[in-house]
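To the wet lab folks,

You asked to see what we're planning to order before we commit. Fair enough. Below is the target structure as tokens, and below that is the sequence we designed to fit it. If anything looks off to you, flag it before the synthesis order goes out.
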């Protein structure tokens, strides 16, 4: 049967309305988006019985080491680095991240490789059978996360690296007890679910703590709510600036230090801040990872859409999923030196008298429930030579309309062209046609913006 379930089953689908035995991955994903009353339904009371029925909770406690990473920004980069470090040291790794950019399989990786469609379909079948047996209804994220955990358990992975989807305390990932917790940072985001201040949000994110656990905290400021939960759980905390630090040495190397070790390392493609958090977590674990493995991992780790510089279609591109205050500030901290180096490099390619001036063109869209005005204001305040904005509505139920984007830009942008298009594919083609080879095209605003741009360029 296809995903079109009768209306009385959408709200409480505990009867067998599952896809047929030959259903594709797309059919399964469509079906799972319809079987629960809401896309986001935080809490563990429904998902835990299904997880226990499947045995994934027990499996995570047996012969595995689990890293759980929460935070407002940087979770994807941090989990990617942890995974790469452990894999370089010879461990069989399981990596769970969300959301994806291009294909759903990106969320579930074993030893860095995306699992196959069939592996996912087999797991969805088992999760659906367990859900029906438990007579419960689950959200899309709950169903897919359980499938990922089941795949990891059946693959007998040594190390599980789990990225929290939303918050921490009530996120489905939190059914698994971590051996090591990481909180990258705490900012204001997802206020409808987590609260509108850092104390409330901090308490939610620190909900991943367990008694006696070790926490790596990757920001200089720590809310009181997090400190209280650390004390409550008698957890050991390693905080950036106090227990470990990092600094750039030059364009090729950086230095990491903690109380026991100082390392001069190759500069990774991902942010040094998130890399330092990941390295601290791995070094604080009982896993055996030597300097050679660390150097190898930092030389190879990458993650699409995170300060992701590429040359595609004879143009220079920078893709970054920045969509909130911290994310934009982090993007700008790296973009300013990149732009200086890029513009000098382009200027040197032609005689000074004929060298065209390199500029920045923005390919931009966001979800409608984000602070669009704040993101635009911060991007404009950086003083970058932005000459054009290319905007369009992304293909998502919560997408900001083109009119909403246009209105937000018009209030803050003067003497800069705003080009509005029907969809992001058209906007992507337009920015290619209108730009020059020496320009830099910055794509940001949402995971979905990056995903649709990459799909248009036919790269991943």
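Sequence we intend to order:
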């Amino acid at each position: 049967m296809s995903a079109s379930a009768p209306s009385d089953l959408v709200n409480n689908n505990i009867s067998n309305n599952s896809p047929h035995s030959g259903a594709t991955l797309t059919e399964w994903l469509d079906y799972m988006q319809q079987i629960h009353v809401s896309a986001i339904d935080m809490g563990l009371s429904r998902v835990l019985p299904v997880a226990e029925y499947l045995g994934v909770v027990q499996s995570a406690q047996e012969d595995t080491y689990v890293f759980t990473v929460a935070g407002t920004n940087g979770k994807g980069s941090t989990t990617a680095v942890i995974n790469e470090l452990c894999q370089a040291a010879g461990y069989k790794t399981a990596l769970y991240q969300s959301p994806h950019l291009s294909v759903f399989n990106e969320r579930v990786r074993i030893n860095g490789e995306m699992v196959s469609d069939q592996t996912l379909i087999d797991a969805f079948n088992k999760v659906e059978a367990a859900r029906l047996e438990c007579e419960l209804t689950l959200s899309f994220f709950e169903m897919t996360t359980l499938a990922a955990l089941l795949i990891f358990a059946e693959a007998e992975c040594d190390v599980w690296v789990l990225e929290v989807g939303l918050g921490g305390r009530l996120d489905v990932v939190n059914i698994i007890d971590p051996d090591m917790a990481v909180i990258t940072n705490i900012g204001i985001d997802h206020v409808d679910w987590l609260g509108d201040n850092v104390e409330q949000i901090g308490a939610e994110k620190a909900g991943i703590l367990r008694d006696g656990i070790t926490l790596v905290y990757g920001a200089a400021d720590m809310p009181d709510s997090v400190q209280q939960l650390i004390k409550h759980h008698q957890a050991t905390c390693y905080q950036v600036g106090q227990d470990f630090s990092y600094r750039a040495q030059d364009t090729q190397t950086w230095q990491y230090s903690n109380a026991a070790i100082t390392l001069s390392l190759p500069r990774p493609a991902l942010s040094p801040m998130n890399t330092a958090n990941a390295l601290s977590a791995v070094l604080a674990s009982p896993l055996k990872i030597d300097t050679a493995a660390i150097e190898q991992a930092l030389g190879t780790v990458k993650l699409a859409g995170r300060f992701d510089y590429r040359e595609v279609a004879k143009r220079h591109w920078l893709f970054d999923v920045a969509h909130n205050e911290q994310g934009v500030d982090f993007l700008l901290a790296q973009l300013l030196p990149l732009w200086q180096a890029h513009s000098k490099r382009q200027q040197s390619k032609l005689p000074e008298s004929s060298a065209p001036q390199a500029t920045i063109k923005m390919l931009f869209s966001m979800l409608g429930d984000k602070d669009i005005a704040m993101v635009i204001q911060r991007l404009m305040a950086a003083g970058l030579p932005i000459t054009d904005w290319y905007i369009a509505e992304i293909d998502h139920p919560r997408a900001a309309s083109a009119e909403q984007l246009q209105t937000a830009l018009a209030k803050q942008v003067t003497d800069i062209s705003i080009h509005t298009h029907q969809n992001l594919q058209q906007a992507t083609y337009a920015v290619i046609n209108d730009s020059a080879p020496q320009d830099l095209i910055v794509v940001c605003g949402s995971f979905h913006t990056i995903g649709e741009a990459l799909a248009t360029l036919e790269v991943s």
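Structural context that might help your review: The first helix runs from residue 7 to 10. The longest strand covers residues 386-392.

Thanks,
Computational group
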